[in-house]
């Protein structure tokens, strides 16, 4: 890491009284400069609860937008303005309205990986670490779940008495993994423990020893007495895994477990973002208030 650039960022951070948050999929240099590194759920809580009024959110757009929805009084900066999430873009507001008309009794549960417009017409948001608890606390029999059909499928398996209506969305990174990729590694390293993100497809999830969010995968591997782990999620999590477990071995199946959008954030654009206070998240107040309900319900129902 360029020490001079890192020092300049830390100095500017002090001047702007800012906090830097980073998702586990960010490049190691960004994770190292952040005040907190976390999964989607924890980062949304930190962004809302922190005393700093300027939040530099190193992740993708829906994460920074969620922070703004929850804390409109704060200045939320997205360092790489074009860092989006292809899965969030798979669910359009108008299409959701149509589906809701077809299922008037269903509650709409949207993954936090969705647009502000979609959140505005959702009853509650979920993340991969909070979804099970939220559905447990949600007193409804019929659920429209979007955009991720894989996370939706994973949750539905745990609630066989509820009716789920799925969306045809998916993560372009996690759906690249095939069961064969996992089986090859299991064959090579006999005692390997398979840790899988719920955004993976069902045949891959079936091969898992543990399924959880990025944060839960890191916690599970750190607390485990095993030594060899197959990490079936975006490769950015390896940085924290190695940092906390220098003596354990971590493997990624197949190739291409890299989210190009998560990798768009660089130290240079964190520096420029703080220097120019640029790429501030702005949200129309009418839509924000509606989307706030869905995110606020997420925090309420995940307790
Ligand atoms: P989590 O950090 O909640 O596991 O989410 C993963 C993800 O895909 C974020 O884009
Ligand atoms: Fe979106 Fe998948 Fe990238 Fe997460 S890893 S930001 S869900 S494309």
TrEMBL record:
Alphabetized Pfam families for the sequence: NadA (PF02445)
**Annotated [4Fe-4S] cluster binding sites:** 85, 171, 259
InterPro entries assigned: NadA, NadA_sf, Quinolinate_synth_type2
- Location, primary (coarse class): cytoplasm
Q: Where does the chain bind iminosuccinate?
A: 23, 40, 111-113, 128, 197-199, 214
- Cellular location(s): Cytoplasm
Q: Which reaction does it catalyse?
A: iminosuccinate + dihydroxyacetone phosphate = quinolinate + phosphate + 2 H2O + H(+)
Q: Does the keyword Iron-sulfur apply?
A: yes
Keywords on record? 4Fe-4S, Cytoplasm, Iron, Iron-sulfur, Metal-binding, Pyridine nucleotide biosynthesis, Transferase
According to its UniProt record, the EC number is 2.5.1.72
GO CC annotation terms, alphabetical: cytosol
Kindly tell me the pathway this chain contributes to. Cofactor biosynthesis; NAD(+) biosynthesis; quinolinate from iminoaspartate: step 1/1
Cofactor (UniProt): [4Fe-4S] cluster
The organism's place on the tree of life at top rank: Bacteria
Q: Supply the enzyme class, top level.
A: transferase
Cofactor binding note from Swiss-Prot or TrEMBL:
Binds 1 [4Fe-4S] cluster per subunit.
Q: Which GO terms describe its molecular function?
A: 4 iron, 4 sulfur cluster binding; metal ion binding; quinolinate synthetase A activity
Any single GO BP term: 'de novo' NAD+ biosynthetic process from L-aspartate
Job description of the protein = Catalyzes the condensation of iminoaspartate with dihydroxyacetone phosphate to form quinolinate.
Similarity comment text for this entry: Belongs to the quinolinate synthase family. Type 2 subfamily.
Question: HAMAP family in the record, alphabetically?
Answer: NadA_type2 (MF_00568)
- What is the protein's given name? Quinolinate synthase
Species for this entry: Clostridium homopropionicum DSM 5847
């Amino acid at each position: 890491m360029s020490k001079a650039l890192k020092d300049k960022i830390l100095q500017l951070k002090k001047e702007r009284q800012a906090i830097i948050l980073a998702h586990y999929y960010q490049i190691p240099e960004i994770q190292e400069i952040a005040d907190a590194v976390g999964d989607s759920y924890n980062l949304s809580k930190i962004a809302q609860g922190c005393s700093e009024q300027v939040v530099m959110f190193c992740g993708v757009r829906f994460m920074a937008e969620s922070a703004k929805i929850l804390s409109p009084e704060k200045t939320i900066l997205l360092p790489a303005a074009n860092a989006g999430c292809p899965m969030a873009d798979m669910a359009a507001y108008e299409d959701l309205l149509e589906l809701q008309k077809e299922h008037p009794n269903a509650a709409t549960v949207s993954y936090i990986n969705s647009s502000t417009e979609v959140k505005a017409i959702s009853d509650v948001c979920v993340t991969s670490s909070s979804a099970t608890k939220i559905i447990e606390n949600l007193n409804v029999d019929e659920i429209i779940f979007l955009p991720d059909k894989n996370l939706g499928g994973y949750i539905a398996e745990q609630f066989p008495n509820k009716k789920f209506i799925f969306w045809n969305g998916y993560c372009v990174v996690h759906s690249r993994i095939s069961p064969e990729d996992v089986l090859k590694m299991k064959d090579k390293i006999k005692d390997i423990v398979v840790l899988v993100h719920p955004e993976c497809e069902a045949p891959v999830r079936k091969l898992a020893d543990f399924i959880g969010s990025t944060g839960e995968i890191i916690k599970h591997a750190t607390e485990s007495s095993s030594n060899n782990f197959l990490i079936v999620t975006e490769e950015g999590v390896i940085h924290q895994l190695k940092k906390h477990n220098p003596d354990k071995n971590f493997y990624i199946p197949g190739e291409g477990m890299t989210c190009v959008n998560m990798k768009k954030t660089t130290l240079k654009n964190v520096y420029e973002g703080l220097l120019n206070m640029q790429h501030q998240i702005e949200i129309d107040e009418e839509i924000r208030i509606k989307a706030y309900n869905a995110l606020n319900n997420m925090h309420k129902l995940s307790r």
